[in-house]
Amino acid sequence: MSEDRVDKNLNEVFEIEPVVVDAEIIEPEKPKQVGDQKAERDFHEVRGSLKDIIDRGSEAIDGILQVASETESPRAYEVAAQMIKTVADANKDLLEIHKKLKDINKETTTVNNTTNNSLFVGSTKELQMFLKEQKENMMLEEKDAEVGD
């Protein structure tokens, strides 16, 4: 007995017409939480402060190196080395806050997963055909995205 005939017989037995419903996957909109807004604001404030420290530190390094070369004082070179280390640490801190903000955003994204039930009315064959089409469409979109990069 072929699958088409089985579907036809079941439709006749249950006195229904096969119906295919276009299903669309809807991603839940990420709610903007007060904590997220504070994290964003703090991130920008800390980033601005670190950028200012790095800029001023770079200017101070230039001045200290000039003094060190003119006086040839070991202490001036020691201070210059400490200042260079401080500016390097500030640069690392700047990169670290970027990473932390990214982690915070990732946590809030993964926590808010919502699953909505979808209803498909139709035969098993129609469902398989629909899923096959969806899979093919996704593969085409991925190929298009790869070509675009």
Helix content range: over 70%
Major sheet summary line: none
Order of helices and strands: HHHH
Terminal-residue CA separation = 49 Å
CATH homologous superfamily designation of the largest domain: ESAT-6-like
Our count of helices gives 4
CATH architecture of the largest domain: Orthogonal Bundle
Mean pLDDT: 78
Unreliable spans are none
Tally of discrete structural domains: 2
Shape, per Cα inertia axes: rod-shaped
CATH topology of the largest domain: Helix Hairpins
Which class best fits the helix and strand makeup?
mainly alpha
Tally the beta strands. 0
The radius of gyration is 31 Å
Beta fraction of the residues?
under 5%
CATH class of the largest domain: Mainly Alpha
Keywords:
2 domains; mainly alpha; 149 residues
Q: Could you please describe the fold and organization of this structure?
A:
The chain is an all-alpha fold. It has 2 domains: 1-21 and 119-149, no CATH class; 29-117, Orthogonal Bundle (Helix Hairpins). It is 75% helix and 0% strand. α2 (34-71) packs antiparallel against α3 (74-111). The longest helix has 38 residues, at 34-71. The chain is rod-shaped, with a radius of gyration of 31 Å. The two termini are 49 Å apart. The model has no long low-confidence stretch (mean pLDDT 78).
